Amino acid sequence: MKRxxxxxxxxxxxLLCVALGACLFNFAKDTTSTIKGVSYIKKLxxxxxxxxxxxxxxxxxxxxxxxxxxxxxxxxDLFHDYVIYGDSRVxxxxxxxxxxxxxxxxxxxxxIRSIPSWDEQLNALKPxxxxxxxxxxxLDEIKLDKxxxxxxxxxxxxxxxxxxLPESHIYVCSIIPVSSEISESKANRSYEDVxxxxxxxxxxxxxxxxxxxNMDTYVSASYYQADGIHFKxxxxxxxxxxxxxxxxx
Length: 249
Known about the structure:
Elements (H helix, E strand, L loop, with lengths): L1 H45 L2 H21 L12 E5 L5 H4 L8 E3 L12 H7 L3 E5 L4 H4 L5 H18 L4 E5 L6 H6 L8 H15 L2 E3 L21 H12 L3
Parallel strand pairs: 1-2, 1-3, 3-4, 4-5
Helix pairs in contact: 6-8
């Protein structure tokens, strides 16, 4: 009996060693992963608040981009508790069936002076995220040689919106220029002043803690309709993605 027991131990000893080795390997692997995880968390904790916020935002944006690219979600599914102010260009979000009309505060010809006309709808919805996507209509109404007036009007209009919704996040999109062909052919030379207007918008955001969304690199000639002013349907998901990427939680 003792001989049989000894033989069994001899047979099982290698198996026991293999099992023990596997356990130790997995433990070491898990421990290494844990150490890496703790180290990563510590690095995040050492970051300034703004830098940490940017890191987390980048992670979120990367994941959203992946889900959008593989077709799991639509970029328009990511909008929540929001309104978008704008003009006829912004109306395209509704006209192409991307976003509901109740969330789009825009009409053809609208500009920043139209903002107060939406106060009733704004106060009914009380959105957490408010986007301003005004375009080229201001270029004739408020000349750049009165840039201070443009800055003051835009700032005052947004502050009035915030007076009733002080906790809402504010996003101001850069003015997207007309196509180069239209800009060159039009007698209205104010189209050339878009970069200067956008610098004013960026200053407004910096001074008030609002988010500036720069669209300079997003628009190519292929996205314009024949009039060189309005956009084709294909541009709106790209525009929407730029808004979502800038949106704070």
